[in-house]
Amino acid sequence: MALVKYNNNSLSAITSTGLTAGAMTLIKEQTASSSATISFVDGTSDVVLDSTYPIYIFKFINIHPSADGEFFQFQANASGGSGYNETMTTTQFRAEHDEGDSGTGLGYQTNGDQAQGTSFQPLGRTVGNGNDECISGELWLFGISSTTFVKHFMANSNTYHQSNYSQNAYTAGYFNLTSAIDEFQFKMASGNIDAGTIKLYGIKDS
Prior knowledge:
It is globular, with a radius of gyration of 20 Å. By secondary structure, the chain is mostly beta strands. The chain has one helix at 8-12, and strands at residues 24-35, 38-41, 55-65, 72-78, 88-98, 104-108, 121-122, 135-142, 151-160, 165-175, 181-188, 193-203. It has one domain (24-203): Sandwich (Jelly Rolls), CATH 2.60.120. It contains 1 helix and 12 strands.
């Protein structure tokens, strides 16, 4: 078999790599400042949550709570709905390791799941409110504009727990409804989001 060699001229003749530029698009960024809730509503303040993108991603960065040991959580509204109380079934597990190297764990979290529940869903483990404590991660949403299928989501987060643990949590589930979803809200289980940033992205060519 002959060896094919490429030079600068042959490489410069390439006009397409097959990669799509800008497939992941930043839609909206919100920064918390003693905020009770942070909401993203389709058609409001330049927010897009419709059939434009088949996949949406929320990235939450350095979410710092006012109250110690509380969950960072989210819920949604179906199109035309209100109250942020849609029915979901979810699952969660976590791995943990403490700063003193004396405690580790890997296990299912029964207080991080719901079975046809309508509560706000935790996106990780409880967060400390020390000056350097926070939670960061991302939430993926699939096919939220579908009027045929349930709405799946997956999240991965890392928490600085109030007992000085690093806790990596995986959360997943589905909203058990066939209506489109076009509103999402984030909040702490108690108290405010003192600081942190939430960014909404859309993935167009997916």
